[in-house]
Amino acid sequence: MRTAILAVARRLRGLKAGSRGDLTPPAPLPWEGRGGTNRPTCPSPSQAQQCHGRLYCAGTPSPSGGGGWGEGLSPVRAPTTCRSVLRAAALLAAAVLAGAIPAAAQPPADNVLTEREKADGWRLLFDGRTLDGWQTSSGTPSKSPVDDGCLNPHKCGGYMLVHKERWENFALALDFKISKGCNSGVFVRTSSLTPRPGKDVGFNGIEVAIDDTPGAGYTDTGALYDLARPTKNAMRPAGGWNRMVVTCDRSRITVEVNGEVVTRADLDGFTRPNVRPDGSPHKFDVAFKDHPRAGYIGLQDHGAPCWFKNVKLKPLK
To answer: Structural domain boundaries of the chain?
Structure first.
Protein backbone atom coordinates (compact mmCIF):
# COMPACT_ATOMS: atom_id res chain seq x y z
CA MET A 1 0.00 0.00 0.00
CA ARG A 2 2.95 2.32 0.59
CA THR A 3 3.83 1.77 -3.07
CA ALA A 4 0.30 2.80 -4.10
CA ILE A 5 0.46 6.00 -2.06
CA LEU A 6 3.85 6.93 -3.55
CA ALA A 7 2.43 6.29 -7.00
CA VAL A 8 -0.43 8.69 -6.25
CA ALA A 9 2.03 11.35 -5.15
CA ARG A 10 4.20 10.93 -8.25
CA ARG A 11 1.19 11.03 -10.54
CA LEU A 12 -0.21 14.18 -8.94
CA ARG A 13 3.21 15.90 -9.14
CA GLY A 14 3.29 15.04 -12.84
CA LEU A 15 0.06 16.93 -13.41
CA LYS A 16 1.71 20.34 -13.15
CA ALA A 17 0.66 23.19 -15.36
CA GLY A 18 1.56 22.61 -19.00
CA SER A 19 2.35 18.91 -18.59
CA ARG A 20 0.31 15.98 -19.83
CA GLY A 21 1.26 13.96 -16.74
CA ASP A 22 0.90 10.68 -18.65
CA LEU A 23 3.32 10.14 -21.50
CA THR A 24 1.63 6.96 -22.71
CA PRO A 25 -0.46 7.76 -25.77
CA PRO A 26 -4.12 7.02 -25.11
CA ALA A 27 -5.97 4.50 -27.23
CA PRO A 28 -7.29 5.85 -30.53
CA LEU A 29 -10.88 7.01 -30.75
CA PRO A 30 -13.38 5.53 -33.25
CA TRP A 31 -12.48 7.66 -36.23
CA GLU A 32 -8.69 7.83 -35.73
CA GLY A 33 -6.42 5.69 -37.90
CA ARG A 34 -8.92 5.70 -40.76
CA GLY A 35 -6.88 7.88 -43.06
CA GLY A 36 -6.74 11.00 -40.93
CA THR A 37 -3.67 12.15 -38.98
CA ASN A 38 -4.76 15.71 -39.01
CA ARG A 39 -4.76 17.30 -35.45
CA PRO A 40 -5.78 20.93 -35.95
CA THR A 41 -5.46 23.53 -33.25
CA CYS A 42 -8.69 24.90 -31.77
CA PRO A 43 -9.56 28.33 -33.16
CA SER A 44 -10.34 29.55 -29.62
CA PRO A 45 -10.62 28.03 -26.13
CA SER A 46 -14.35 28.71 -26.12
CA GLN A 47 -14.76 26.23 -28.96
CA ALA A 48 -12.88 23.42 -27.26
CA GLN A 49 -14.49 20.44 -25.53
CA GLN A 50 -12.54 17.78 -23.63
CA CYS A 51 -13.27 14.08 -23.56
CA HIS A 52 -11.13 11.09 -22.59
CA GLY A 53 -7.92 13.08 -22.45
CA ARG A 54 -8.25 14.99 -25.76
CA LEU A 55 -9.63 18.33 -26.80
CA TYR A 56 -12.20 18.48 -29.60
CA CYS A 57 -12.79 21.63 -31.58
CA ALA A 58 -16.41 22.40 -32.24
CA GLY A 59 -17.15 23.34 -35.81
CA THR A 60 -14.06 21.65 -37.29
CA PRO A 61 -14.71 18.43 -39.27
CA SER A 62 -13.24 15.30 -37.80
CA PRO A 63 -10.60 13.36 -39.76
CA SER A 64 -13.16 10.64 -40.42
CA GLY A 65 -15.13 13.06 -42.50
CA GLY A 66 -18.25 13.33 -40.36
CA GLY A 67 -20.97 10.95 -39.39
CA GLY A 68 -21.40 8.99 -36.17
CA TRP A 69 -19.92 9.83 -32.81
CA GLY A 70 -17.64 12.86 -32.93
CA GLU A 71 -19.27 14.49 -35.92
CA GLY A 72 -18.08 18.05 -36.21
CA LEU A 73 -15.26 17.58 -33.68
CA SER A 74 -11.55 17.20 -34.38
CA PRO A 75 -9.09 15.85 -31.79
CA VAL A 76 -6.04 17.66 -30.44
CA ARG A 77 -3.81 16.60 -27.56
CA ALA A 78 -4.93 17.95 -24.19
CA PRO A 79 -2.32 19.73 -22.04
CA THR A 80 -3.22 17.39 -19.17
CA THR A 81 -5.15 14.19 -19.61
CA CYS A 82 -8.22 13.41 -17.59
CA ARG A 83 -7.01 9.80 -17.76
CA SER A 84 -4.12 10.69 -15.44
CA VAL A 85 -6.47 12.33 -12.97
CA LEU A 86 -8.78 9.33 -12.98
CA ARG A 87 -5.91 6.91 -12.41
CA ALA A 88 -4.55 8.98 -9.51
CA ALA A 89 -8.03 9.23 -7.97
CA ALA A 90 -8.50 5.47 -8.25
CA LEU A 91 -5.19 4.82 -6.46
CA LEU A 92 -6.10 7.30 -3.73
CA ALA A 93 -9.52 5.68 -3.22
CA ALA A 94 -7.88 2.26 -2.99
CA ALA A 95 -5.49 3.55 -0.34
CA VAL A 96 -8.38 4.93 1.74
CA LEU A 97 -10.37 1.70 1.45
CA ALA A 98 -7.34 -0.32 2.49
CA GLY A 99 -6.92 1.83 5.60
CA ALA A 100 -3.58 3.32 4.56
CA ILE A 101 -5.20 6.77 4.61
CA PRO A 102 -7.89 7.34 7.27
CA ALA A 103 -11.35 8.16 6.02
CA ALA A 104 -13.51 10.81 7.71
CA ALA A 105 -14.45 9.81 11.25
CA GLN A 106 -18.01 8.54 11.63
CA PRO A 107 -20.13 9.88 14.53
CA PRO A 108 -20.74 7.31 17.27
CA ALA A 109 -24.07 5.49 17.30
CA ASP A 110 -26.79 6.76 19.61
CA ASN A 111 -27.46 5.19 23.00
CA VAL A 112 -24.30 3.12 23.21
CA LEU A 113 -21.08 3.59 25.13
CA THR A 114 -17.87 4.09 23.19
CA GLU A 115 -14.82 2.07 24.16
CA ARG A 116 -13.30 5.21 25.65
CA GLU A 117 -16.42 5.86 27.75
CA LYS A 118 -16.40 2.27 29.02
CA ALA A 119 -12.75 2.61 30.02
CA ASP A 120 -13.50 5.91 31.77
CA GLY A 121 -16.29 4.41 33.88
CA TRP A 122 -19.41 5.80 32.20
CA ARG A 123 -22.72 3.95 32.56
CA LEU A 124 -25.50 3.88 29.98
CA LEU A 125 -28.83 4.76 31.62
CA PHE A 126 -31.03 4.37 28.52
CA ASP A 127 -30.56 1.75 25.81
CA GLY A 128 -32.66 3.51 23.14
CA ARG A 129 -35.08 0.59 22.83
CA THR A 130 -36.76 -0.05 26.19
CA LEU A 131 -37.74 1.77 29.38
CA ASP A 132 -35.70 -0.61 31.49
CA GLY A 133 -34.53 1.21 34.60
CA TRP A 134 -37.08 4.02 34.29
CA GLN A 135 -40.40 4.79 35.98
CA THR A 136 -42.50 7.83 36.79
CA SER A 137 -41.89 9.84 39.94
CA SER A 138 -45.15 8.32 41.14
CA GLY A 139 -43.55 4.87 41.06
CA THR A 140 -45.59 3.62 38.10
CA PRO A 141 -44.51 2.47 34.63
CA SER A 142 -44.36 5.24 32.04
CA LYS A 143 -47.36 5.62 29.76
CA SER A 144 -45.10 7.13 27.08
CA PRO A 145 -43.20 4.54 25.03
CA VAL A 146 -39.72 4.97 23.63
CA ASP A 147 -40.08 7.57 20.88
CA ASP A 148 -37.73 6.99 17.92
CA GLY A 149 -34.81 6.02 20.16
CA CYS A 150 -35.59 8.73 22.71
CA LEU A 151 -37.13 9.14 26.14
CA ASN A 152 -40.09 11.53 26.00
CA PRO A 153 -41.53 12.26 29.45
CA HIS A 154 -44.57 14.08 28.03
CA LYS A 155 -47.73 12.29 29.21
CA CYS A 156 -45.67 9.67 31.03
CA GLY A 157 -48.20 9.68 33.87
CA GLY A 158 -46.14 11.45 36.53
CA TYR A 159 -44.47 14.78 37.30
CA MET A 160 -41.30 13.38 35.76
CA LEU A 161 -39.69 10.26 34.37
CA VAL A 162 -36.99 9.08 36.78
CA HIS A 163 -34.15 6.59 36.72
CA LYS A 164 -34.69 3.96 39.40
CA GLU A 165 -31.25 4.28 41.00
CA ARG A 166 -30.15 7.00 43.40
CA TRP A 167 -26.97 8.90 42.63
CA GLU A 168 -24.79 11.20 44.72
CA ASN A 169 -21.65 12.58 43.03
CA PHE A 170 -21.65 12.16 39.26
CA ALA A 171 -21.42 13.65 35.78
CA LEU A 172 -24.64 13.25 33.80
CA ALA A 173 -24.43 13.69 30.03
CA LEU A 174 -27.38 13.66 27.64
CA ASP A 175 -28.70 15.05 24.36
CA PHE A 176 -32.05 16.84 24.33
CA LYS A 177 -34.39 18.41 21.82
CA ILE A 178 -37.45 20.51 22.63
CA SER A 179 -40.69 21.24 20.84
CA LYS A 180 -41.87 24.78 20.19
CA GLY A 181 -42.92 26.47 23.43
CA CYS A 182 -41.58 23.60 25.55
CA ASN A 183 -40.96 23.94 29.28
CA SER A 184 -39.07 21.02 30.80
CA GLY A 185 -36.07 20.30 32.99
CA VAL A 186 -33.53 17.78 34.23
CA PHE A 187 -33.77 17.06 37.97
CA VAL A 188 -30.86 15.86 40.08
CA ARG A 189 -30.67 14.74 43.72
CA THR A 190 -34.44 14.36 43.99
CA SER A 191 -35.14 12.97 47.46
CA SER A 192 -37.57 11.63 48.23
CA LEU A 193 -40.11 10.81 45.53
CA THR A 194 -42.94 11.43 48.00
CA PRO A 195 -44.17 15.02 47.65
CA ARG A 196 -44.47 17.12 50.78
CA PRO A 197 -47.98 18.30 51.65
CA GLY A 198 -49.02 21.10 49.32
CA LYS A 199 -45.90 20.77 47.15
CA ASP A 200 -45.04 18.90 43.97
CA VAL A 201 -42.14 16.47 43.94
CA GLY A 202 -40.03 19.08 42.18
CA PHE A 203 -39.50 20.77 45.56
CA ASN A 204 -37.59 17.64 46.60
CA GLY A 205 -34.93 18.04 43.91
CA ILE A 206 -32.79 20.55 42.04
CA GLU A 207 -33.88 21.38 38.50
CA VAL A 208 -31.69 22.32 35.57
CA ALA A 209 -34.12 24.35 33.46
CA ILE A 210 -34.92 23.62 29.81
CA ASP A 211 -37.22 26.21 28.26
CA ASP A 212 -38.00 27.56 24.80
CA THR A 213 -36.95 31.07 25.78
CA PRO A 214 -34.11 33.31 24.56
CA GLY A 215 -32.98 34.76 27.89
CA ALA A 216 -30.42 33.90 30.52
CA GLY A 217 -32.42 34.38 33.70
CA TYR A 218 -33.26 32.19 36.68
CA THR A 219 -35.77 30.09 34.71
CA ASP A 220 -34.06 29.89 31.30
CA THR A 221 -32.16 26.94 29.84
CA GLY A 222 -29.08 26.06 31.84
CA ALA A 223 -30.21 27.74 35.06
CA LEU A 224 -30.54 25.94 38.37
CA TYR A 225 -34.21 26.78 38.44
CA ASP A 226 -34.76 29.96 40.51
CA LEU A 227 -31.43 29.42 42.28
CA ALA A 228 -28.57 30.28 39.90
CA ARG A 229 -28.84 31.84 36.47
CA PRO A 230 -26.60 30.97 33.48
CA THR A 231 -24.03 33.32 32.03
CA LYS A 232 -25.69 32.87 28.62
CA ASN A 233 -28.37 30.89 26.82
CA ALA A 234 -26.38 28.38 24.76
CA MET A 235 -29.35 26.29 23.61
CA ARG A 236 -30.14 25.91 19.92
CA PRO A 237 -33.61 26.82 18.59
CA ALA A 238 -36.51 24.43 19.13
CA GLY A 239 -36.15 21.33 16.97
CA GLY A 240 -32.35 21.22 17.18
CA TRP A 241 -30.35 18.78 19.27
CA ASN A 242 -28.37 20.04 22.27
CA ARG A 243 -25.74 18.47 24.52
CA MET A 244 -25.99 18.96 28.28
CA VAL A 245 -23.59 17.83 31.00
CA VAL A 246 -24.56 18.29 34.65
CA THR A 247 -21.86 17.62 37.23
CA CYS A 248 -22.76 17.18 40.89
CA ASP A 249 -19.61 17.02 43.01
CA ARG A 250 -20.38 17.32 46.71
CA SER A 251 -21.72 20.85 47.22
CA ARG A 252 -20.84 22.07 43.72
CA ILE A 253 -23.07 21.83 40.66
CA THR A 254 -21.89 22.75 37.16
CA VAL A 255 -24.02 22.92 34.00
CA GLU A 256 -22.58 22.74 30.49
CA VAL A 257 -24.72 23.32 27.38
CA ASN A 258 -23.34 22.64 23.90
CA GLY A 259 -19.77 22.65 25.11
CA GLU A 260 -19.97 25.81 27.20
CA VAL A 261 -20.06 25.93 30.99
CA VAL A 262 -22.97 28.28 31.65
CA THR A 263 -23.75 27.78 35.36
CA ARG A 264 -21.72 27.14 38.50
CA ALA A 265 -23.23 27.02 41.98
CA ASP A 266 -22.08 25.97 45.43
CA LEU A 267 -24.97 24.72 47.52
CA ASP A 268 -23.04 25.43 50.72
CA GLY A 269 -23.79 29.10 50.06
CA PHE A 270 -27.57 28.51 50.28
CA THR A 271 -27.79 28.58 54.06
CA ARG A 272 -31.36 29.88 54.44
CA PRO A 273 -34.72 28.90 52.97
CA ASN A 274 -36.06 31.19 50.21
CA VAL A 275 -32.81 33.21 50.03
CA ARG A 276 -29.93 33.06 47.55
CA PRO A 277 -26.35 33.68 48.71
CA ASP A 278 -26.57 37.29 47.45
CA GLY A 279 -29.63 37.90 49.63
CA SER A 280 -32.21 37.90 46.82
CA PRO A 281 -35.32 35.73 47.27
CA HIS A 282 -36.19 32.42 45.59
CA LYS A 283 -39.31 30.25 45.77
CA PHE A 284 -38.01 27.19 47.67
CA ASP A 285 -38.55 26.82 51.40
CA VAL A 286 -35.34 24.81 51.57
CA ALA A 287 -31.83 25.62 52.78
CA PHE A 288 -29.99 23.77 50.01
CA LYS A 289 -26.86 23.54 52.13
CA ASP A 290 -28.76 20.83 53.98
CA HIS A 291 -30.48 19.26 50.97
CA PRO A 292 -29.73 15.51 50.54
CA ARG A 293 -26.67 14.95 48.38
CA ALA A 294 -28.01 11.65 46.98
CA GLY A 295 -31.23 11.29 45.02
CA TYR A 296 -32.96 10.47 41.76
CA ILE A 297 -32.39 11.85 38.27
CA GLY A 298 -35.60 12.97 36.57
CA LEU A 299 -36.82 14.29 33.21
CA GLN A 300 -39.73 16.65 33.71
CA ASP A 301 -43.07 16.59 31.91
CA HIS A 302 -44.34 20.14 31.97
CA GLY A 303 -46.93 19.95 29.21
CA ALA A 304 -44.99 19.63 25.95
CA PRO A 305 -42.85 17.03 24.16
CA CYS A 306 -39.15 16.98 24.93
CA TRP A 307 -36.81 14.25 23.72
CA PHE A 308 -33.73 12.81 25.46
CA LYS A 309 -31.13 10.35 24.19
CA ASN A 310 -27.54 9.28 24.93
CA VAL A 311 -28.26 9.46 28.67
CA LYS A 312 -24.98 8.49 30.34
CA LEU A 313 -23.63 8.84 33.85
CA LYS A 314 -20.15 8.66 35.33
CA PRO A 315 -20.00 8.21 39.12
CA LEU A 316 -17.48 10.46 40.84
CA LYS A 317 -15.46 9.42 43.87
So the answer is: 2-97, 115-315
